[in-house]
Amino acid sequence: MARPTRVGPEALSGVAGLDDLLEVASLIRGNIERVIEGKPEVVQLSLVVLLAEGHLLIEDVPGVGKTMLAKALARSIDCTVRRIQFTPDLLPSDVTGVSVYDMEAREFEFKPGAVFANIVVGDEINRASPKTQSALLEAMEERQVTVDGTTYVLEAPFMVIATQNPIEMEGTYPLPEAQRDRFTARVSMGYPSVEAEIEMLDTHGGPAALDDLEPVADAVTVRKLIDIVRGVHVSADVKRYVVELANATRSAPELRLGASPRASLQLLRASRALAALEGRDYVLPDDVQTMAAPVLAHRLLPTAEAQVARRSTESVVADLVARLPLPDLRKN
């Protein structure tokens, strides 16, 4: 298989626009799909989250490629990458860092933790205690870490890609609500099709395909692409539609916890990124509808009655999207 061409910051030093974004996104997508077969919608969502300055939660049963997806995205970008294997004995200081006393200098020296990287891959995040999981809260929301009263700013881009097993699996802890709310989107890998699984046996039966991946972009390029996404236009009616959709979850009888204002903001950012990846410099209500379930569902808590009726939060969001009238953009 031919190696993809790399796009660096010099390629975007002139006029950076949607054409540049689509070119780089296509290279990253192709790189990931070299190791993740038959999951184009999952790869697309990971790119949306990257360009929306968000964080991605990959949830599914063991062995379906969650960590492979996270590592493939990280290797496609030439930037700092750190991997954290979450275990029950992992400490918050292992994540954020710790101040160590230097006997010779007679002062404390800060030793950065694993969170100090452009892309942080958190493997099986729900196998650590809620206390350790919460060590990521400040970093994910504010892009900074405070240790012993000193604040350290994290370098952009900063993205946490976390994998987790369903909470029914043994040895797992449920993610706190505040932690789930900081993940822009949740995606489930699902089992591959028969054809994709056969191709996987051919591809991964020999040398590890992941080891052959080379970066096709870098941190500077990604920052430029994020700036392009920020410039995607969102009309007042579409913004109102985003807020009305989030508000509908707060009054839904099947839910005891609806979407937060942070969810509205991240739904807007994700819709911008999706529009840009579709080659548009404006957001349509269709973009919001497409991103509604991945962005909102994992933040919602169903009522006991909904759980007994086996109503998933994804189905509740789908019903709300179907019922909520679309804004009329023809008058603008």
Largest sheet: 5 strands, parallel
Would you identify the regions where 5 or more consecutive residues have pLDDT less than 50? 11-15
How much strand content do the residues show? 15-25%
Number of strands: 13
The name of the CATH topology of the largest domain is Rossmann fold
Shape: globular
CATH architecture of the largest domain: 3-Layer(aba) Sandwich
Summarize the entry for a quick read.
With 332 residues, the chain is of the alpha/beta class. It has helices spanning 18-33, 40-51, 66-75, 92-96, 130-133, 137-142, 177-181, 194-204, 219-230, 236-250, 261-277, 285-296, 304-308, 313-323; strands at residues 56-59, 77-78, 81-85, 97-102, 107-112, 119-123, 144-147, 150-153, 159-164, 185-187, 217-218, 255-257, 301-302. The radius of gyration is 20 Å and the shape is globular.
Tell me what you see in this structure.
By secondary structure, the protein is an alpha/beta fold. Strands 3-6-9-1-10 form a five-stranded parallel beta sheet. Strands 2-11 form a two-stranded parallel ribbon. Strand 7 (144-147) and strand 8 form a beta hairpin. Helix content is 42%, strand content 16%. The model is unreliable at 11-15 (pLDDT under 50). Helix 1 (18-33) crosses helix 2 and helix 11 crosses helix 12 (285-296). It is globular and about 70 Å long. The longest helix is centred in the C-terminal third of the chain and has 17 residues, at 261-277. The protein folds into two domains: 37-230, 3-Layer(aba) Sandwich (Rossmann fold); 232-327, Helicase, Ruva Protein, domain 3 (Orthogonal Bundle), CATH 1.10.8. The protein has helices at 18-33, 40-51, 66-75, 92-96, 130-133, 137-142, 177-181, 194-204, 219-230, 236-250, 261-277, 285-296, 304-308, 313-323, and strands spanning 56-59, 77-78, 81-85, 97-102, 107-112, 119-123, 144-147, 150-153, 159-164, 185-187, 217-218, 255-257, 301-302. The chain is built from 14 helices and 13 strands.
